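During the no-cost extension, the postdoctoral fellow (Dr. R.K.) reprocessed legacy sequence entries with the updated structure-token encoder. One reprocessed record is reproduced below for audit purposes.
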Amino acid sequence: MPTGARIRRPRLTTVLRDDGRVSPLELFFDLVFVLALTQCTALMAHEPTWTGLAKGIAVLGVMWWAWVGYTWLCSVVNPEEGSVRLLMFTAMAALLVVALAIPGAFGDDALIFAIAYGIVRAMQVALLVVAGREDEGLRHSAWGLAVSTAIGVGLLTAASFADGELQGALWAIALILDVGGPLVIDSSGWRLMPEHFAERHGLIVIIALGESIVAIGVGAEHALDLGIGTAAVLGVALTAAMWWIYFDIVAIVSARRLEEAEPGRVQNEMARDSYSYLHLIMVAGIVLAALGLKKTIGHFDEHLHTVPAFALLGGVAVYLLGLVAFRYRHVHSINRQRLGLAIVLLILVPVATEVPALVALAAANVLLWAMIVYETRMYGEGRQKVRRPQTAET
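Re-encoded structure tokens follow.
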């Protein structure tokens, strides 16, 4: 070896994504998010008050933004190439610590929660900066994200030393500033694979719906009898209805529109608004509904209290409102039947506190499935064309 030669130390490298396939490592990464959703539901179930509900949604927002960050990252870089795979494993470990700290996120484990969350976010931003070495636009956007992330993590850390209203205020400000960062960052610098991005969000909706199934199982902790069995079946039917109204047409049309959008600012802002932001509303609705199902299954023959009743019916309503906004962002039209049903469900919340929980769950099912039957008939041939696009004639 020449005496003047320098030994080059290996540095962190990334390989840009060249296809829209969701990798096995991304699905593996999502397993930690499953635990986070379960912990959010448990946090609210342990404290079934409006304050407890607010805490659960705030934690969900923070966890969602961490997941969204890695979805954007993995739509730019291949997570299974270069050094990214090992760093993804490290991020999973840190995210697991965050999930484990959720029950004490507003108490004894608040500082652990903030530090572990900071590690998760810092690694994501660092990988984006590395990926943007040869891309000035991406690098500029990544550094902008670093600023909003640092502010959000700093406020959560400060909140760990506070309590009561001050702690709640710091959490709210941290979430708003962190999540709102991309609104003021130049969106033209981001890069994404639209097919991959849409599929990732569809998969996370399925994971959230899976939390509803888990909630049914947890709620049925007593000896199985006819009442619990009936409530469990109705719970699965409600979850299936929520799956149907997203995946039957909405997911297909929205994914195609994202792929057809002009690459750059237009496509990036559509992805940011309709997936990163509006899917949070939808997932929050699913998690609330999971809480309602958990309380309903365990007390099917009793009247629900106001908060669990809101979680059950209001959660489905929030999910529908998220879908209404999602459609409006893509096609600039309002689905009136879904908006109307969301309003009806919210109006029925007080009624749900006066009837057995099983009746409230059955009523929600009847309303949702009636809307599905109506929409299926109304869309008719158009629905078939969307689900089975005609192939070119040979």
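DSSP finds 14 helices and no strands in the chain. Residues 265-298 form the longest helix (34 residues). The remaining legacy entries will be reprocessed before the final report is submitted.
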